[in-house]
């Protein structure tokens, strides 16, 4: 067993000690959004109690403190993902906004009729729909690389799609439904060889593994804060400096300008050029605290514990007759999609909830992946480092009870 003081870790997460329908909560919906440690909650609370002001506008003390928290989060994020510079980190409301920024500001001006954007069948809608929207405006098309039954990307097929008319390639680092870890380094190498920029959706990777955007060799990396202990409405886009330099602003307004004149407005340098308006300052105070928390715990300990839980939960699920697991990639993060033969996913999730167990049911914002497997929905148990073997046991016991009810 892994040396990990799980009880001490759990004590940091106030919500984990609550009950649901009279039962102790088992929170296995971490891929949807993570719970928050007291350190993050307190950072947000402290911001509003002690430092609240707007950023980058005021010379007074509070304005400087708020700016320090906001810009401090950028510094921490930049170091966390090994960005070449803090100026390569655009703060956003989450991956969805990061993707749309790339779609409208990077892709759209470059797309001609007949061009293409390549993505994969396993993507979240956030890594499909923005590309479809800009493709529709420009006469370009979106192509999706296939996966195999185990839920692994067929990398050679992805490469076959990388023809000269492709202006952008997009792939998830980790699938939110299958847990599959895609070979991003290898994909980035091939994209570079063909001169095609690569965007990586890092939403589901950041909570589970150290990320080094320079070592990965991609061009864009999209980040969501709320899945990695930080408040909702926080995220980032990392992009190579030359890309940010070449991109026109997406949102216009305050904070993103150099000088506004009716005969021609000039813009701030990246990243501020892309950060119009008042941002989620308190949220980013929380992002800073979330990164501090993860780094204090360390990915070595986090990964060891999460993978012990993943193996244990997978083993226990495999013992249940008629249970089918979706996603058996050799390299996967602690996300398990499954169905029980003869039972609707939503019925199972609803009954599990009555047992205090929170899992997600549905299409997980991945319709094409559901179409690939020929199912309307799956159940998804997604684990975090603050989960326990006892919670896995409670989940399995609840599942067996529900299965009996529905059979
Ligand atoms: N991509 C993936 C792989 C995700 O799991 C999610 C969140 N479910 C998103 C993108 C979108 O993130 P957000 O809703 O935080 O913008």
Give a count of the beta strands, DSSP E runs of length 2 or more. 17
Largest sheet: 7 strands, mixed
Distance between the termini: 36 Å
- CATH class group of the largest domain: Alpha Beta
CATH architecture of the largest domain: 3-Layer(aba) Sandwich
Domain Aminotransferase class V: 26-395
InterPro entries: Aminotrans_V_dom, Aminotrans_V_PyrdxlP_BS, Cys_dSase_SufS, Cysteine_dSase, PyrdxlP-dep_Trfase, PyrdxlP-dep_Trfase_major, PyrdxlP-dep_Trfase_small
Family: Belongs to the class-V pyridoxal-phosphate-dependent aminotransferase family. Csd subfamily.
Protein name: Cysteine desulfurase
Walk me through this protein's architecture.
With 407 residues, this protein is an alpha/beta fold. The chain has 14 helices and 17 strands. A seven-stranded mixed β-sheet has the order 4-10-9-8-7-5-6, sandwiched between helices. α3 packs across α10. It is globular, with a radius of gyration of 22 Å. The two termini are 36 Å apart. It binds 4'-deoxy-4'-aminopyridoxal-5'-phosphate.
């Amino acid at each position: 067993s892994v040396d990990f003081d799980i009880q001490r870790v759990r004590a940091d997460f106030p919500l984990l000690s609550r009950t649901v329908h009279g039962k102790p909560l088992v929170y296995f919906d971490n891929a949807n959004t993570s719970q928050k440690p007291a350190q993050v909650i307190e950072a947000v609370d402290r911001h509003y109690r002690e430092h609240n002001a707007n950023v980058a506008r005021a010379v007074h003390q509070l304005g400087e403190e708020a700016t320090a928290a906001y810009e401090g989060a950028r510094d921490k994020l930049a170091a966390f993902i090994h960005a070449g510079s803090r100026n390569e980190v655009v703060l956003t409301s989450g991956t969805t906004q990061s993707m749309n920024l790339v779609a409208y500001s990077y892709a759209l001006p470059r797309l001609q009729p007949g061009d293409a954007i390549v993505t994969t069948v396993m993507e979240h809608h956030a890594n499909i729909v923005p590309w479809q929207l800009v493709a529709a405006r420009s006469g370009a098309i979106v192509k999706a690389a296939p996966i195999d039954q185990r839920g692994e990307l067929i990398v050679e097929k992805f490469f076959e799609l990388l023809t000269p008319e492709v202006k952008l390639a997009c792939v998830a680092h980790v699938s939110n439904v299958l847990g599959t870890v895609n070979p991003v380094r290898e994909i980035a190498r091939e994209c570079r060889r063909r001169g095609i920029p690569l965007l990586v959706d890092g939403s589901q990777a950041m909570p589970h593994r150290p990320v080094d955007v320079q070592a990965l060799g991609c061009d864009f990396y999209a980040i969501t804060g709320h899945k990695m202990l930080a408040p909702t409405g926080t995220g980032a886009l990392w992009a190579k400096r030359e890309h940010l330099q070449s991109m026109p602003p997406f949102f216009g307004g305050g904070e993103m300008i150099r000088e506004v004149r009716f005969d021609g407005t000039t813009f701030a340098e990246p990243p501020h050029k892309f950060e119009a308006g008042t941002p989620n300052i308190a949220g980013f105070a929380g992002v800073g605290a979330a990164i501090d928390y993860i780094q204090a715990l360390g990915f070595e300990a986090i990964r060891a514990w999460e993978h012990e839980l993943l193996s244990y939960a997978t083993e226990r699920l495999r013992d249940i007759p008629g249970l089918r697991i979706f996603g058996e990639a050799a390299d996967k993060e602690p996300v398990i999609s499954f169905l029980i033969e003869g039972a609707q996913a939503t019925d199972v999730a609803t009954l599990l909830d009555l047992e205090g167990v929170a899992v997600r049911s549905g299409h997980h914002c991945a319709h094409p992946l559901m179409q690939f497997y020929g199912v309307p929905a799956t159940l998804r148990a997604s684990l975090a480092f603050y989960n326990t073997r006892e919670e896995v046991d409670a989940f399995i016991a609840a599942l067996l009870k529900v299965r009996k009810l529905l059979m």
